[in-house]
C-alpha cells in the first residue's frame, strides 16, 4: 500500500477515526509538517502529541481554533519554527496571551474562513509580540462573514496595550479588511509598534476575487451589496483611524472595490 493509498484509507475510515484517541510523533528530525481537520484538538480523550520537533522550521495546519492551538502549543513544540501557515475552519476561541516565544519565526500567514461574532482580532497581536524575528505577517479573512461590532467614536475609544517595539517586520497585509473594531485596533497596534515596517496593504475586497484590471475579464468578480457596504465602512475606518498613524517611511496600499464595476453608495 502506497503512502497516498494509506492516507485515503485512513481519511475514509470513520470508525477508525472515532477510535483514534492518541496521535504521537517520534520523528524528531522533521523539518516540515502539515496536518488538517482535527476538529476536536481539545476534546476530552483526544491527545495530539507532536513531541519536541527541534529541527522543524515549517508548519502548515488546517483545523478549528487554529490560532488558539498554535499560540498555546507550538512555541514549546517547535522552537526553531520559521514559517507558520494556519487555516482555521471555525475560529471561536481568541488567541491567548502567553510568555512563550516564536524566536525564529519569520513568516506568518493566517487564513480565517469562519469566525465567531465574538472573536477578538486584536488577540492576534499575541503572535506579533511573541515573534521578534517576524518579517512578513499576512491575515486573510472572509469579509462576507464579518459580523463584529464596527468601529465608531474617536481614536480614544480604541483599546491600548503595552507596546513591544518590533524591529524586523517589513510587510503587513490584511485581505478582506473590514470595519470590525478589533481589526482596526490590531492594525493600529502593529503600525505603532513597528520600527522597520516598509509596506502595509489593506484589501477591502473579497478574498481571491479577480478584478477587471488584472485579468482578461471585462468585469470584476461580482460583490453582493452587503459586501460593498462593508467595504465602504472599512474605507472610512482606514481614513479616520489608520491613515494618520502611518509613518512617512511606510507605504500604505489600500485596495478598494473597482469603482467602474461596483457602486458604493453612501
Beta-strand segment tally = 10
Distance between the amino and carboxyl termini: 61 Å
What profile does the largest beta sheet have? 8 strands, parallel
Strand order in space, largest sheet: 2-4-5-6-7-8-9-10
Question: What is the structural class?
Answer: alpha/beta
Domains, number: 2
Topology as H/E string? HHEEEEHEEHEEHEHE
Overall mean confidence score, pLDDT:
81
Helix content: 10-25%
| Whole-angstrom Rg | 20 Å
Shape label: globular
Low-confidence stretches: 39-47
Beta content comes to 15-25%
Helix count? 6
How does this structure look, described?
With 266 residues, this protein is an alpha/beta fold. It folds into two domains: 22-134; 140-167 and 176-266, no CATH class. It has helices at 3-11, 14-19, 66-77, 125-129, 181-193, 225-242, and strands at residues 22-24, 32-36, 47-49, 58-63, 83-88, 107-112, 136-141, 171-175, 199-203, 251-255. The strands form two sheets. It has an eight-stranded parallel β-sheet, covered by helices on one side. Strand 6 (107-112), helix 4 (125-129) and strand 7 (136-141) form a beta-alpha-beta unit. InterPro entries: At1g61320/At1g61330-like, LRR_At1g61320_AtMIF1. Residues 18-258 form the At1g61320/AtMIF1 LRR domain. It comes from Panicum virgatum (Blackwell switchgrass). This is At1g61320/AtMIF1 LRR domain-containing protein.
Amino acid at each position: 500500500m502506497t503512502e497516498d493509498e494509506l492516507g485515503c484509507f485512513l481519511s475514509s475510515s470513520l470508525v477508525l477515526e472515532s477510535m483514534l484517541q492518541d496521535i504521537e510523533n517520534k520523528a524528531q528530525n522533521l523539518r516540515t509538517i502539515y496536518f488538517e481537520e482535527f476538529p476536536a484538538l481539545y476534546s476530552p480523550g483526544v491527545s495530539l502529541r507532536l513531541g519536541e520537533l527541534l529541527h522543524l522550521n515549517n508548519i502548515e495546519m488546517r483545523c478549528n481554533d487554529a490560532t488558539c492551538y498554535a499560540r498555546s502549543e507550538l512555541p514549546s513544540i517547535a522552537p526553531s519554527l520559521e514559517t507558520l501557515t494556519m487555516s482555521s475552519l471555525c475560529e471561536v476561541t481568541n488567541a491567548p496571551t502567553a510568555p512563550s516565544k516564536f524566536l525564529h519565526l519569520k513568516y506568518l500567514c493566517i487564513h480565517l474562513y469562519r469566525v465567531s461574532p465574538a472573536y477578538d482580532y486584536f488577540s492576534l497581536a499575541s503572535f506579533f509580540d511573541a515573534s521578534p524575528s517576524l518579517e512578513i505577517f499576512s491575515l486573510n479573512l472572509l469579509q462576507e462573514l464579518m459580523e463584529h461590532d464596527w468601529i465608531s467614536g474617536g481614536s480614544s475609544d480604541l483599546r491600548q496595550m503595552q507596546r513591544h517595539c518590533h524591529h524586523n517586520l517589513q510587510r503587513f497585509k490584511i485581505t478582506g479588511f473590514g470595519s470590525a473594531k478589533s481589526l482596526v485596533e490590531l492594525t493600529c497596534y502593529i503600525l505603532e509598534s513597528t520600527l522597520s515596517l516598509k509596506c502595509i496593504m489593506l484589501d477591502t475586497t473579497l478574498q481571491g476575487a479577480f478584478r477587471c484590471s488584472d485579468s482578461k475579464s471585462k468585469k470584476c468578480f461580482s460583490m453582493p451589496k452587503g459586501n460593498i457596504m462593508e467595504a465602504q465602512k472599512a474605507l472610512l475606518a482606514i481614513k479616520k483611524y489608520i491613515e494618520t498613524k502611518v509613518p512617512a517611511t511606510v507605504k500604505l496600499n489600500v485596495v478598494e472595490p473597482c469603482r467602474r464595476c461596483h457602486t458604493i453608495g453612501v
